[in-house]
Amino acid sequence: MQSQSSAVRRSRQCPAATLRRVPRRATYAAACSTIALSLAVAACGQGGSSDLGQSPAIGRKGNQPKAAQQLGFPQFATKNTTRVGGADPTADAAAVAQAVFTPQLSSARPRAVTLVDSGDWQSGVAASVLMSRPLRAPTLLTGSDSLPDATQNALNALAPTGARRIGGASVVRVGSVPAPSGLRSTQVSGTNPFAIAAGVDRLSARAAGKPSDVVVVTSGERAEFAMPAAAWAAKSGDPVLFVTRNTIPPETRKALAFHQQPKIYLLGPPDVLSAGVEKLLRRLGTVKRISGPDPVTNAIAFARYSDGAFGWNVVDPGHGLVFANDQRPLDAAAGAPLSASGKYGPLLLVEQPSPLPPALIQYLLDIEPGYEKDPTRGVYNHGWLLGDAGALSVGDQARIDTLLEIAPVSTAPQQTTTPAKPPATPKGNKKTGTSTTPSRTTTTTTTRKP
What we know:
Elements lengths: L33 H12 L21 H4 L10 E4 L4 H12 L12 E5 L3 H7 L11 E4 L6 H10 L12 E4 L10 E4 L4 H16 L5 E6 L3 H4 L1 H9 L3 E4 L6 H9 L4 E5 L7 H7 L4 E5 L4 H10 L15 E6 L4 H10 L7 E4 L7 H9 L3 E2 L10 E5 L7 H11 L2 E7 L15 H4 L11 E5 L2
Parallel strand pairs: 1-13, 2-3, 2-4, 4-5, 6-7, 6-8, 8-9, 10-11, 10-13, 12-14
Antiparallel strand pairs: 14-15
Helix pairs in contact: 1-3, 3-5, 3-12, 4-6, 4-8, 4-12, 6-9, 8-12
C-alpha cells in the first residue's frame, strides 16, 4: 500500500492564457551516472552539431574553469531531467539505445536491433513495438544508401547477438534500408506505410507466438497525433496500424482481420480520424477513442488513459516521462526504449522549443509529487528530454525540472466530518473507457508550506 506521504497530491490552477513564474525551491546536489554522460556525449557528438555547447566530459577538476558546465550541467542533466541532446533523431536513437543496453556489460546487449529509414516516421512508430518483449529490439535510424556514423558506431558497440524467435537475425530492416555488413538480418518490406506497419505487426506476432488481442490504430497522415503510440507499443507489445482520415486501407483492414475482432484503441481526434472511419473499424473489432484536440493534449489524454490493463494511467506522482518536439516525429521511435525500460513512462509533446504549453504545465502540476515530513518516503518523477535546444529549450528544461520536483506540503483537516460526495462519472466514461479522468477526493485538504 502506498504510504501517506507518497499519496499526497496537490492541485493548482494554471491560467490558459498566461504562464506563471515558476516558484523558487531549495535545490539539491545533482549527480549524473557515467551512462547518462556517455549518452549525452554520443547525442551531441554524432549525427550533427548541437547548440547546447561543448560535449560533457568525465574527469573535470574543481580548479578548471566552468567545470560544472563541462560535466554536463545543467544543459544535459538536472536533478529531475536527463537530456538526449541530439541535433537529429538519428543521433538520439543511437544514444538512447546505448543508454538502455549498456555496451560495457556483455549480458546487457540486445539480441536484435531495428533499422528504419530516417525519413519514414510511419515505419519508426510501427517498428517501436519490436522493443517490447520478447525481442527488445531498439530502433536505430539510417539513410536509404548507407549507415550514418552514429548508427554504425551504435551497432558496433551494441553487437546484437541474434534473436532465435526471428531466425537468429541480429537486425530487422524495416522498409528499403541497407543491410549492415557482418550481421544476419531479416526484412519487413511493403509498398506503402500501411503495408509496412502490417508487416511489422506480423513479425511481432511471430516473435510473441500469437497475435495481440489489442491494436492501436492511428493516423498515417498526421505524425504529431501518432507519435505517442510508439511509446505505448514499446512498453506493451500492442502493435500500431494506420488509417487515413476517412478510409481504412486494405493492408490495415487485412491486418485487423488477422487479429480476429481485437480491442481497437483509436488514437486521435475526429478531425484527424473521422467518425466514419471509427464506424468502419467497429466492423473489425471493439473500438474506443483516445483523443485531444491538438497534439499536446492528445498525448496527455493517452498518458492519463486507463481501460483495464490498457493505458498508462499516469494520473498520480511517481513516474518516468519522455518529452519530445512534435516537429521531430522520428524522436518518438528513437525514444521508445526509454518508455519500455528504466522508469517506464508515456511520451509527452511540445509544439515549439519554448514556452511550455499551458496544458502540459497543468498536467505536470496534477502529477507533481509532495511529501509531508520526509522526502525519502515520497515518490519521484523523472523526465527524459529528446533533442537539443532547437527541440526543447534549456530554459524549459529547467521549468520541467521544477515541475517534476518533490516539494513539502502540509495537510489541514476538513471543516466537516461529512464524507465528500464522489464526483459524478461523466456520461459514457464507464461504457467507453474514454480518457476523461474524474478528480479524486481525499479526507484532507492539501496546502503547500510557505
